[in-house]
Amino acid sequence: MSNLIRQHEMRRLITLCETEDWGSAAAVFQGGDCGTFAYALHQRTGWQAMASENHVWLVNPDGKAVDINGVHETDMIRLPGDEGLTVHPHRISERDVQDRDNLAWANQIIANHPSRFGIAEW
């Protein structure tokens, strides 16, 4: 990918974040690239990751699940179709990153909206 195309794509991703297009963010980070978002948030917080066969999220010190949708009321996240799936601790690592551009976007979202994820501002 040329640098010009990459720069254009990064501007598009940052613009999505700045306009708080949470629908697009959820579609990416809940719909297949949740590991990238979880990795970015883990790098910032150090929180434990959990996983089912369909989703990866973190659990904050208060025992609540955190993903692109923010802080949940319980320690588990169940997506449609998750009924009966096993949930287990997950050792989050760079292997969970599927797309480097999405990692940059995830970091930008976290930096711009830390309170959404229950973390202190940078």
Q: How would you describe the overall organization of this protein?
A:
The protein is α+β, with helices and mostly antiparallel strands and 122 residues long. It has one domain (3-117). It has helices at residues 3-18, 22-29, 34-45, 100-112; strands at residues 48-51, 56-59, 65-67, 70-71, 88-90. The chain has a 5-stranded antiparallel beta sheet with strand order 4-3-2-1-5, covered by helices on one side. The longest helix has 16 residues, at 3-18.
Helices and strands in order, then pairings?
Elements: H1 3-18, H2 22-29, H3 34-45, E1 48-51, E2 56-59, E3 65-67, E4 70-71, E5 88-90, H4 100-112
Antiparallel strand pairs: 1-2, 1-5, 2-3, 3-4
